[in-house]
Design brief:
About 10% of the residues are buried. Helix 6 crosses helix 9 and helix 11 packs across helix 12. It contains 13 helices and 7 strands. The protein is an alpha+beta fold. It is elongated. The longest helix is centred in the last third of the chain and has 161 residues. The protein has a 7-stranded antiparallel sheet, covered by helices on one side. Among the domains are: about 180 residues, no CATH class; about 100 residues, Pleckstrin-homology domain (PH domain)/Phosphotyrosine-binding domain (PTB) (PH-domain like); about 30 residues.
């Protein structure tokens, strides 16, 4: 109810609360969706709009409804009022389809206007890079993305907030309020003939003048039509840069601040009058329409080109199918020829295989005969080699037996020598014990015989030393005899091992030994 009442108020449409209640009588549970409200909006509000409403106030109401939900929460370099004006400009420049977007060409147009209003140079390369990045991801920007782009300062670096705000306001006045030109000038009164400074605003069919540029105190209008004209006046009454606006009922004398402003105003008014005579819309609307028609033309050309490409592609596919059919026919003919060639080659191969098998069979028979001859020769050679090996083994066995026999003889000799040495050692030990007993007996003799015994003892000790020396000599001889006995024993073990190995070999080749025995 509140939304409908406010819409009716802003659009100058009489509000009918009874119709509202009747429309939603059967659907009073829960909230109303966009789709549910649109039929009522179209039938009871939008169809009654006559066009005699303040579009800025209508836009401001729509902005109030959607800005809080959609406007970016990140800090922007523009005020909320400037964001509202950018939003209204977006609605003017956007495409006539939902969801609303502004295409890169219109973004470029808007940014150029802003840059020109700020008095800065247009950075075409920077925008081209931005355009490339934009085209890769989407077709255009939404209203809120455009506000964020302007508010980020990406294309207004080095400009302060006031300059950007003034530029947005100037573009807003031109595109939305249809302000073709505005500025301070002096106007001559009709009654008192005095000159008063006024703020003039030129629109497509009217020139309004105010006390100041805040547009709060409006002093009058100059209605323009195709019969109006403007002409320059010479300087008079101390006033310079004069020009006259002639209408059907009244004329207005105006003084500009300088010649340049005078010429600009004369040119702007003449252009406006010419458009009124031709029935043409304002320049910015005409330019927008031309840009839109150009885009539609390019789109139609692109669609036509795509259609032609599809036709060419279809024709190409048909040609491809025909070529594929011809190729398959050629492949079938080639396959038949290949099959015949294959059969001929197969017959030839079978004949070759038959001849090859016969040759291979003859070769195998010859090879078997050669292998048998070689095997017999090899067996004969092995037999002769075994005979030679056995003869050599017999000789080596005899030599080993001789060595073993000699080793046994040496062992016997050493054993006898060892026994003799042991016997001599035993005799010496008995003699030494006997001398020791005699010495003990001599000690017990009387003191008178002590000297004599002492002399005899000395003699016997000398004899004992000689005997000990002889005993040591015998001990050395016994050790040498033992070493010789160990060497003879090792030789005997070696000879025994050799004899045993030769016996094993002889036992292994016993059959061959029997073969070469006499008889």
């Amino acid at each position: 109810q509140v939304l409908s009442h406010n819409l009716c108020t802003v659009l100058n449409v009489p509000h009918d609360p009874v119709a509202l209640e009747e429309h939603f009588r059967d659907d009073d549970e829960g909230p109303v969706s966009n789709q549910g409200y649109m039929p009522y909006l179209n039938k009871f509000i939008l169809e009654k709009v006559q066009g005699n409403f303040d579009k800025v106030e209508f836009n401001r109401m729509c902005w109030t409804l959607c800005a809080k939900k959609n406007l970016s929460k990140s800090p922007l370099l523009i005020s909320d009022e400037d964001a509202f004006k950018v939003w209204v400009i977006f609605n003017f420049l956007s495409e006539d389809k939902y969801p609303l977007i502004i295409v890169p060409e219109e973004i470029e147009y808007f940014l150029k206007k802003l840059t020109e209003a700020m008095g800065a140079g247009w950075q075409q390369e920077q925008f081209d890079l931005y355009k490339i990045a934009l085209n890769t991801s989407r077709e255009g920007l939404s209203a809120w993305e455009l506000i964020e782009l302007i508010g980020s300062g990406q294309f207004s670096k080095g400009m302060d907030r006031q300059t950007v705000s003034m530029a947005i306001n100037e573009v807003f006045n031109e595109l939305i309020l249809d302000v073709l030109k505005q500025g301070y000038m002096l106007k001559k009164g009709h009654k008192r003939k005095n000159w008063t400074e006024r703020w003039f605003v030129l629109k497509p069919n009217i020139i309004s003048y105010y006390v100041s540029e805040d547009l709060k105190d409006k002093k009058g209008d100059i209605m323009l039509d195709g019969n109006c004209c403007v002409e320059a006046l010479p300087d008079k009454d101390g006033k310079k840069c004069l020009f006259l606006i002639k209408c059907l009922d009244k004329s207005f004398e105006i003084s500009a601040s300088d010649k340049k402003k005078k010429q600009e105003w004369i040119q702007a008014i003449q252009t406006t009058v010419s458009l009124l005579r031709a029935g043409s819309p304002p320049p910015h609307k005409e330019a927008r329409q031309k840009r839109k028609e150009l885009r539609q033309k390019l789109l139609a050309e692109q669609e036509e080109l795509e259609r032609q490409m599809k036709e060419l592609q279809t024709a190409n596919e048909n040609k491809q199918k025909e070529l594929e059919t011809v190729r398959k026919q050629l492949e079938a003919a080639a396959a038949r020829a290949a099959e015949e060639e294959k059969k001929r080659l197969q017959t030839q191969v079978e004949l070759q295989d038959r001849f090859s098998l016969e040759l291979e069979r003859e070769k195998m028979v010859r090879q078997k005969m050669e292998e048998q001859v070689a095997q017999k020769s090899s067996e004969l050679e092995q037999y002769l080699q075994r005979v030679r090996e056995l003869e050599e083994m017999y000789k080596q066995l005899q030599e080993a037996l001789e060595v073993e026999k000699q080793a046994r003889q040496d062992e016997e000799t050493v054993r006898k020598l060892q026994a003799r040495l042991l016997e001599e050692e035993s005799a010496k030990r008995a003699e030494l014990e006997k001398w020791h007993l005699q010495q003990q007996q001599t000690i017990q003799m009387t003191e008178a015989e002590k000297q004599e015994l002492e002399n005899q003892r000395m003699i016997k000790e000398q004899a004992l030393q000689v005997a000990m020396h002889q005993l040591e000599q015998l001990e050395l001889e016994r050790k040498e005899a033992l070493e010789q006995y160990e060497e003879v024993k090792k030789k005997l073990e070696t000879a025994a091992n050799n004899t045993r190995s030769w016996k094993d070999k002889v036992a292994h080749h016993e059959g061959l030994i029997r073969l070469i025995e006499p008889g």
